[in-house]
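Dear H.,

Thanks for agreeing to be a second pair of eyes. The structure we're designing against is below in C-alpha cell form, covering all 297 positions.
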C-alpha cells in the first residue's frame, strides 16, 4: 500500500512503507484525525487498536459462551474438547499459584479470558500485511479519515500496558481483600527489610518500585515480541514487493521472490508458537502476580 505522501509519481521506499505501516489511526476525543507528537499524549487514542481489541474481545466471549451453551455430558465435539482442555489447563495452573479456592472462582475465569483475548489479538499478525490496510486505504477517503491502519492490538504499547495496569488493579484489590487495608499498608512499610521505623521509607520505596517494574515489564514483554513479529512480516512483504514478478532466474529479484515465499512460510509457522506462547506467558504472570497478592511478607 502506497503511503499517502507518495501517491501519484512513484511507490514508497522500503523505509516509507514500514513507517506508514507502523503509524496508528489516531483520533482525539472529538473524533478528529490527529498524529501523536510526544511520547505520552492522553489527548488522543489509537482508534484501530481500540476497535480490534474490542471486536476480538467480543469474539472471544462469544466463542466461550457458545462452547458453554453447546456443552454436553456425552462425548464432546472437537470444539468443546478444545475448550475443556484449555479450561482444565488454566485451572491447573491457577491451583498451583492461587491457593485460595474462593479467589480461584474469579481468578481462573479471568486468566482464561486473558489467554483467549490475547491469543486472538496476537493472531491478527497472521493475516497478510496489506490485506486489511489496503481495504481501509480504499475506504478511508470516503469516510474522511486517515489511511493509516494497524490490525495487531498487542503490537501497540498502549494496549499491552493497559492490560498490565488492569492486572495491577486486580492485584491491589486482592491485597486489600486478603490482608485488610491496615494489614496491606503495614506490609508496604515493613517488607522486605523488616518492621523497623527507620526502614519504613526504604521499604515503601522498594514496594513501589516492585509494583512499577512488574507492571511495566508485564506489558513491555508482550509488546516487544508482537512488535518485532509484525516488523519481520513487513520485511518479508518487502521481499515480495522487490520481486515485482521477475521470473528470470538470472535476475536478483527472482531469488528475492523465492526468499519471500520460504521466509514467509517458515516465519508464519514459527509465529504460531510465538502468539500462543506470549498469550500463555501473560496469563501465567497474571496468575503469579495475583497469587503474590494473597501471600503475606
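And this is the sequence the design step returned. I haven't edited it by hand at all.
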Amino acid at each position: 500500500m502506497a503511503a499517502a505522501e507518495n501517491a501519484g509519481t512513484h511507490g514508497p521506499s522500503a523505509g516509507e512503507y514500514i513507517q506508514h505501516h507502523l503509524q496508528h489511526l489516531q483520533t482525539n476525543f472529538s473524533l478528529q484525525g490527529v498524529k501523536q507528537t510526544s511520547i505520552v499524549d492522553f489527548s488522543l487514542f489509537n482508534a484501530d487498536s481500540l476497535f480490534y481489541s474490542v471486536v476480538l474481545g467480543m469474539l472471544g466471549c462469544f466463542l466461550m459462551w457458545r462452547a458453554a451453551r453447546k456443552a454436553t455430558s456425552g462425548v464432546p465435539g472437537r470444539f468443546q474438547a478444545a475448550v475443556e482442555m484449555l479450561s482444565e489447563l488454566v485451572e491447573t495452573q491457577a491451583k498451583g499459584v492461587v491457593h485460595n479456592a474462593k479467589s480461584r472462582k474469579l481468578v481462573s475465569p479471568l486468566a482464561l479470558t486473558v489467554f483467549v483475548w490475547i491469543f486472538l489479538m496476537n493472531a491478527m499478525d497472521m493475516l497478510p500485511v496489506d490485506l486489511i490496510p489496503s481495504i481501509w486505504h480504499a475506504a478511508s477517503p470516503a469516510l474522511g479519515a486517515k489511511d493509516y491502519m494497524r490490525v495487531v492490538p498487542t503490537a501497540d504499547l498502549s494496549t499491552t500496558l493497559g492490560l498490565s495496569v488492569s492486572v495491577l488493579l486486580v492485584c491491589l484489590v486482592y491485597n486489600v481483600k486478603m490482608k485488610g487495608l491496615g494489614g496491606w499498608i503495614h506490609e508496604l512499610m515493613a517488607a522486605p527489610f523488616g518492621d523497623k521505623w527507620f526502614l519504613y521509607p526504604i521499604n515503601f520505596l522498594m514496594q513501589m518500585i516492585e509494583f512499577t517494574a512488574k507492571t511495566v515489564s508485564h506489558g513491555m514483554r508482550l509488546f516487544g515480541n508482537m512488535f518485532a513479529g509484525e516488523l519481520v512480516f513487513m520485511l518479508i512483504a518487502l521481499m515480495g514487493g522487490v520481486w515485482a514478478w521477475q521470473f528470470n532466474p538470472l535476475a536478483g529479484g527472482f531469488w528475492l521472490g523465492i526468499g519471500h515465499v520460504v521466509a514467509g512460510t517458515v516465519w508464519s509457522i514459527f509465529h504460531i508458537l510465538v502468539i500462543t506462547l506470549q498469550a500463555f506467558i501473560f496469563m501465567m504472570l497474571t496468575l503469579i502476580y495475583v497469587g503474590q497478592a494473597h501471600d503475606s511478607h
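Two observations from my side: The longest helix spans residues 200-243. The CA atoms of residues 31 and 209 lie 36 Å apart.

Warmly,
E.
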